[in-house]
Amino acid sequence: MSAQVRAPSAPFRQFIVKVHGRCNLACRYCYLYEGPDRTYRDRPATTPPDVLERTAYRIAEHAAVHGLTAVSLVLHGGEPLLAGVETLARFTTRVRRSVPRTCTVHATVQTNATLLTGQRVDVLARHGISVGISLDGGLPAHNARRVDHSGRPSWPAAVRGARLLADHRPDAYAGVLTVVDPVTDPVAVYESLLALRPPALDLLLPHGNWSAPPPHVEPETDGKSGSRPVRTPYGDWLCAVFDRWWAGRRKETRIRLFEECIALLAGLPAATESLGLAPFDAVVVETDGSIEQVDSLKSAFDGAARTGLDVFRNRFDEALLHPGVAARQAGAAGLGARCRACPLLAVCGGGHYAHRYRAGEGFANPSVYCSDLQRFIRHVVRRLTAATTAASASDRVPAEPDVHGGDTP
Description:
The chain is an alpha/beta fold and 409 residues long. Helix content is 33%, strand content 13%.
């Protein structure tokens, strides 16, 4: 860690709780179960009641100590619905009853949608738990890599769950999370997802790094020379979707990556794991009660997310002092020299932390998607500039002449 990194003071506001440690799918690109990390093998599949009870206590303790008025509770896995919706409801209720009365708990379950039923959605909605869905597009071909443990496609069950949620309880629909695949037609993917009527979309880049590059990326030879890959497949894909989204006659859905990029370019505060320099504020509780950094780090190496802490012995404030967390809360000081010198620093923020890793060097590198991010951000700048120029020109159009002449009313 750089000597410039200082201990952070920003509290955690997002608590990602693993309510089940296994998944009913075996997605071929899954970094959690198919990547280098194997820590899940030594943990219980189902989170024991005492872990959930202690986690609720620790969340409430953190909220009280820091005077938080709102926290985000993300019920995660594996596939969290394997824990049962009643378990999710009881735990969420326990957290809400434990935090100070001045603190609001925004609860979401992130699911692959294959286990959604009307009854389950009703239970979740009744307990104020919104439902986020993970899909790679709105067509079967887009989800070919999302299969079960027998290799059968998950699409029929997943799309049935997504449509049920949109039709039956749209008030509980949080949105869709999609991993970008540059081989697909970006506009076709976007429009197929619109057909599922999500209130929001999250577009995520596949987890990869300098030592294990993501598909279709040709990284620089050393990550430091300033040279660039010739191709920017992920940046091109995002630009195409941005143009389609930007040109829409109405706001068809929210796309967090796009909205946060625009906000950052305007100098406004924005919070996303992929862009900006805002202190990172998420923490994970695993099924055995271990307090960890976010799962994406597990794409780097085995044990990368470990802190050595757990909810039985440690407060979340102790996790704030972990070197990995401190580095993510240090802003520009936690980045390498090349990122700090970049004119896009305030918007890019170095990119996703997990995408900066290189074996033997750690995370003080630019993102392996550096060129793709530059391509995307500069494209958004051009679109905003064009829109601003057009608006200014419209404002300068002369008024119609006064048909009465002079100052006659």
